[in-house]
Amino acid sequence: MTEWVRRFHPSDDPRARLVCFPHAGGSASYFFPVSRALAPSVEVICLQYPGRQDRRTEPCLDDVSAFADAAASALDPWLDLPIVLFGHSLGASIAYETARRLQSSGREVVALFASGRRGPTTTRHERVHLLPDDGLLAELRRMSGTEATLLADDELVRMILPALRADYRAAETYHHSPGETLRCPIIALVGDNDPKVTVDEARDWAAHTTGPFTLTVFPGGHFFLQDHQQEIVTALSDQIAALGAHPSG
């Protein structure tokens, strides 16, 4: 499962490891600046989903449970340090389900950052994944998650559409299943003008842990983190420092 993991800044002696889960249509490289900012005291590994960039010839996944099963398996060799999970949008749902799987197997994470995603038991009837290609691309432009110049490149668009559609299908068909409740802190992050999640929907994350819950609201839309990178890096660093370096296993 090594094809799932990208490590941009290896560290000889990190005190913790942060695992980043990209948004719909996103890739591991999205988190390169976070990795650079936290190295070397925190080692960042970023998940590369199948169907994009160097994995573009592999079949896409379109189900959050399938993503989480694969992610939990891929992370097995990396659990020798305290593990913090950070997921944005679709990535938050995958990170949450991955944390549940790790906890149920006795390998708990020490914190979960859920960014730009409504809580697992809130529901919306979304059908973006059923739109024709033009409609799917219009949604991507509306969310401002991809540079407009990149979307003007027909060849690139053809390459990203299958993964993008599969990711949207995973996000929009996700349903929370009863079972494991997390014990780790959950830190929810949300933009105050995000069309994909309201502040109240983000607050639902509190119901999914017996540990502490924190909600931070930023100015901005769905990709508020692009304008608040330093604040988010500081929050990650502070949370990891507060938790202490105790192996998660």
User: What is the makeup of the main sheet?
Assistant: 7 strands, mixed
Helix content: 25-40%
Q: Could you name the CATH topology?
A: Rossmann fold
Shape: globular
Mean pLDDT: 90
Q: Please, what is the CATH homologous superfamily? A: Alpha/Beta hydrolase fold, catalytic domain
Structure notes:
- Belongs to the thioesterase family.
- This is Thioesterase.
- It holds the Pfam family Thioesterase.
- Keywords: Hydrolase.
- The protein has about 250 residues and is α/β, with parallel strands linked by helices.
- The protein has one domain (about 1-245): Rossmann fold, CATH 3.40.50.1820.
- It has eight helices and seven strands, in the order E-E-H-E-H-E-H-E-H-H-H-E-H-E-H.
- It has helices at about 30-40, 65-75, 90-105, 135-145, 150, 155-170, 200-205, 230-245, and strands spanning about 5, 15-20, 40-45, 85-90, 110-115, 185-190, 215-220.
- Strands 1-3-2-4-5-6-7 form a seven-stranded mixed sheet, sandwiched between helices.
- Helix 2 (about 65-75) crosses helix 3 (about 90-105).
- The two termini are about 20 Å apart.
Could you give the topology of this structure?
Layout: E1 5-6, E2 16-21, H1 32-38, E3 42-47, H2 64-75, E4 83-88, H3 90-104, E5 111-115, H4 133-143, H5 148-151, H6 154-172, E6 186-191, H7 199-203, E7 213-218, H8 229-243
Helix pairs in contact: 2-3
Describe what is shown at a glance:
With 249 residues, the chain is α/β, with parallel strands linked by helices. It has helices at residues 32-38, 64-75, 90-104, 133-143, 148-151, 154-172, 199-203, 229-243; strands at residues 5-6, 16-21, 42-47, 83-88, 111-115, 186-191, 213-218. It has a seven-stranded mixed β-sheet, sandwiched between helices.
